[in-house]
Amino acid sequence: MEWQGWYTLAVVVLVFVSLAKGLGPPDVILLGGAVLTALAGVVTPAELFAGFANEGVLTVGALFVVAAGLRETGALDVMGTRMLGSARGERGALLRMTPFVVGSSAFLNNTPVVAMLMPVVADWCRKFRVSPSRLLIPVSYLAILGGVCTLIGTSTNLVVNGLILSEWRRLDGVEAPAGLAPISLFEPAWVGVPMALVGVIYLLLVGRRLLPDRKNLLEQFGESPREYLVNMRVQPNCRLIGQTVQQAGLRHLSGLFLVEIVRDERIITPVGPDEVLQAEDELTFTGVVNTIVDLERIAGMAPADPETRDFVGSRRHDRRLTEAVISGTSPLIGKNIRDANFRAMYNAAVIAVHRGGGRLSGRIGDIVLRRGDTLLLTTGPHFEEAHRNNPDFYLVSSIQSARPVREDRMAISVGVLVLLVVLMAAGAVPIVLAAFLAAGLMVATRSISASDARHSIDWQVLLTIAAAFGLGKAIENSGLAETLAHGFFGWAGGLGPAFALAGVYLLTVVFTEMITNNAAAVLVFPFAMA
Q1: Burial (CB count <10 Å: 0-12, 13-18, 19+), residue 390
Q2: 371 FRET partner, CA 20 to 30 A, in 23, 52, 305, 497?
Q3: What is the pLDDT of residues 397-415, one digit of tens each?
Q4: Burial of 257 (0-12, 13-18, 19+ CB in 10 A)
């Protein structure tokens, strides 16, 4: 092995030591290592940055937008909420989650699927007093198992396919080794589906017995969060009009209780499951912050107070939810919320109220404020900075408010996903073009705004993968891959193909303990090819 190989080996060792010690973000460390090899002439600038134009990397970026479009239209929320349905026990919840998580992660990136399910599962766990770790850990593993079943189920498959495609084109297809050809959409299923079935059976029968139960720890830190009173009005355009409380899903909302309905000055309480919702109904709920955020996401459901409703409408795209506690010297004490004039004084509006030691009822605007009352405010993005030292109240927390979903675009976004799968399965267009077409349609149909589309892309993940391409090319150019492959893999290959495959597997497993799966696949690819 010449000096380039030893130099590259030193850089690779330096990179992995830096990653193991956490000396910096993975993308910065990998890119720095790749630049060091370029400075020594091991790779050219074009080879160094080739990963940024790789079809696999670009496809991963486009699929981030597709998943975000499904989330913005509420499609993922609807699927996630219906997933648990009427499950009342841990085993039942796990059984109901399995087909949804495995099936959805086969066609969507694991990250948005798991991120969407986390609040749904956490709320269910609070309601039925189950430790979240008993379900959230299986959700993570189920998403991984589903992701390996198709080409687009996990970004690692796409990255490897991009590497294969580049190598196949470099050899003009004709000179390529037998079996080296681009991967089709369902080709990984021959291995992925059996592995997923084995993994699911293990999780259901054995794995769940090994899961931690941290319920006592949750109770130690307080399992009963603040319960707020909130008034919402059913707008004329609300999709829930004409549905019963049961059909609308308002009967068994996790962490939320429908106290009463005010209709034409008539109070309906208790609210039965067969009560039909009408336009202009005023619904009074008690619930925790997270469920109130979910309530606000229902299109056509708005705060009952007209002033608050106008404020929320004017802040649709940049508002936050902020919890504030009334101080002992606040001029708000003794005033009802309607007369407190929050909008003029603080550029905020009261969404909900919590009072320790007693349950509130009635209209929020009529509540007379006391010292220690906790208010849930809808504010602009700079409210916390402007009122951090305000003596009228103490700021407790700030939460990014969930915008109402674009429910009128839900069917369109699901249609875009179906189109993407059909195009990829049929091989009608290259995978990267199908992914970009789907991402473009999400924006063009206003399922997601261009700004939100840009923010949905995890640029650090893409940079990490692209940087690994440069370092992987250095491993190949320097002769390091060939030397190590002929050494270790040659010895293993002499024992049979299964041992060579085991060597690739073990090396990849070791790499994934320090870097992302995508980057590990890129770095091991030259060894496997050699």
Answers
A1: middle
A2: 305
A3: 666 555 566 777 888 988 9
A4: middle
For residue 478, give the amino acid letter: S
- Helices in 360-496 by DSSP H: which ranges? 383-386, 410-426, 431-444, 450-456, 459-477, 480-484, 490-494
Q: Which single residue is written with the structure tokens 């796409």?
A: 158
SS3 of the chain: helix, strand, coil, percent, to 5? 55, 10, 30
| 141: number of Cβ within 10 Å | 15
* C-alpha–C-alpha distance, residues 305 and 401, integer Å: 18
Interatomic CA distance for residues 262 and 282, integer angstroms: 5
Could you tell me which residues are beta bridge partners of residue 399? Answer: 321
Better-predicted residue by pLDDT, 182 or 176:
182
Secondary structure of residue 405 in the 3-state scheme: coil
Domains assigned to the chain = 68-152+191-214+408-456 (no CATH), 228-400 (3.30.70.1450)
DSSP 275: P
Quick one: which of 386, 306, 313, 302 has its CA closest to 347? 386
214-237 b/e (C-beta count within 10 Å ≥ 16 → b)? ebeebeeeeeeebbbbbbbbbbee
Note whether 213 and 131 are within 8 A (CB): yes
Question: Taking a C-beta distance cutoff of 8 angstroms, is the pair 485, 527 a contact?
Answer: yes
Nearest Cα residue to 181 out of 388, 518, 427: 427
Q: What is the DSSP string of 482-493?
A: HHHIIIIIHHHH
The string of pLDDT tens digits covering residues 508-526 is 777 776 566 777 777 777 7
